[in-house]
Amino acid sequence: MTNDDLEALVTCFCEMGLSYEEFCNALRGSSRDVKPLKRLIGNPYASSIDSWLLKVGIALIAFPDPTVTDVIGSILVAVGLAKRRMRQLTMADISIEFRDVTKSLGSIRQELSYCLV
Fold it and tell me: Distance from CA of residue 56 to its chain's centroid?
């Protein structure tokens, strides 16, 4: 390789490094812009944060000991439900609720069609 070829190769590598740096900066900026949206969109497959409170509370109520487990279970269920209500509404919650309402409306419609027949 001649000196001219080496200079061209070094110039090409410098330009490639700059383009990678620009790409990384753009990606970092877009991820910084999108991060607040994650809280609003939510994760439809994630279990709720407070679900363990409800599970333990219901288990304590369903399988009572001779002690005060039913009172403790009731308290855990109440705290879990209160914590669930304080959670911010997300887009995933809206889509899940829409799907549930659509299913229930379909079942109501089906029941009404059986009653009319």
Answer: 22
User: Residues 35-65: pLDDT tens digits?
Assistant: 776 666 666 555 544 467 777 777 777 776 6
Low-confidence ranges of the chain (pLDDT < 70): 37-51, 64-67, 85-89, 117
Distances (CA, A) of 39 to 8, 83, 90, 91, 92: 48, 17, 7, 9, 10
Which pTM does this prediction carry?
A: 0.37
Residue with tokens 């910084």: 32
Query: Read out DSSP for the chain?
Result: --HHHHHHHHHHHHHHHHHHHHHHHHHHHHHHHHHHHHHHH--TTSPPTTHHHHHHHHHHHHS--SSSHHHHHHHHHHHHHHHHHHSPP-HHHHHHHHHHHHHHHHHHHHHHHHHH-
* Alpha-carbon span 57 to 72, nearest angstrom: 7
